[in-house]
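User: Here's a chain of 405 residues. Predict its fold as tokens.
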Amino acid sequence: MSQQPKKHNLETFTSNITVNGTGKEPIEVAGVPDQFHEAIHFENVLFMKAKPTKIDFLKDSSFKNVKFISTANPWVITNSTGLKFEGDTTATSVSTNAAEGPKWTGDSSLQAINVKDVSATLSWTRAADNTAVASYLIYNGENPIASVKGQQTSYNVERLSPALNYQFKVEAVDGTGNRSDNGPITTFTTSGTKDIVSPDVPTGDDSLTLSDVTGSLGGTWAKLQWKGATDLYGIKKYEIFANGEKVGETAGNELSFTVKKLNPDTAYNFKIKVLDETGNESSYPQVLSVKTNEAFDHSAPKWPEESIITVKAITQTSVKLSWPNAYDDKKVMGYRIYQDGKPVNEKVTFTPINTESTASGTEYRIQGLAPNTTYVFKIEAGDAAGKWSGFGPSIKVTTKGPNKN
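Assistant: Prediction complete.
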């Protein structure tokens, strides 16, 4: 009962089963930060002598009458939110914690004190939780910049810019991943003189490149990486451009970005612009020029309706065949000719995925046949990806008999 990293758009139900022992976790959900599993529901499930669960990055899901027998501490839950435990479901402190997230009271507050040119101290009232607040997330605008332990109620923000308006927010997180979404907010203006100096950008051919990871370039995407710029008061964000058009941006501490929705087999020039908190900007001098891969080959070649093989010449030992062009979403690269179900050239092995063929064109002379003998010939079409039509036109041909004196 494992779920791989994939976002669920439809609800998934598992119900009315009994599992007696298992070598793996009886419920395993393995998501990633930006791809939660969603809407997975278990009902009337009994686990006997099972290992503890392993649930990570799951949201808006439920467990109703899910029981564990002879399993100590069956619930292991992290980075998850919106879970419900109903009916006779086995309860532990973990499931209790996961069932309810942190809350802020009506008089909750966040204050900025000791505000200076480049720093300020944030102080907030505690949030409440049915078990305990595990940590607090601090946001500068919409960007998370720090996480502190749940016992801490203050944080010193540094590397701010002088004479600039800021808005900060704090959210509470419990031990299973439930996170508040209505935390207190504060705004303030740093002292000092406004920054007018643009960031310094790196130079060199390796300042902007394709990512080192395998598959960084595809038919519709390109993953870029770059060396970080520097600024006296810190970097706010990077903007990414493809052929002069802005296609995305990252926070100032992120030095990679995947550009999506590109066109296959197309040349692109990528550039990077960097901005500091005040809005001063600089452009990287490097231009990364790439060409996306050809479009993925989605299907095997197809034949026009009523395609037939034409016999152009028949002798005692040979026959010349011709046939119409098949068509493909990419390109037809070759044709296979079968004689009585076997390749015409017995030295060649045909498989459903290799690219071996008999002919590249639409005519072929078959030799070495026996006189006055009937043969069945069939044609298949294939592309460069090794996709074959699996069917095609066929014909029955009888070679000429020996000459009578």
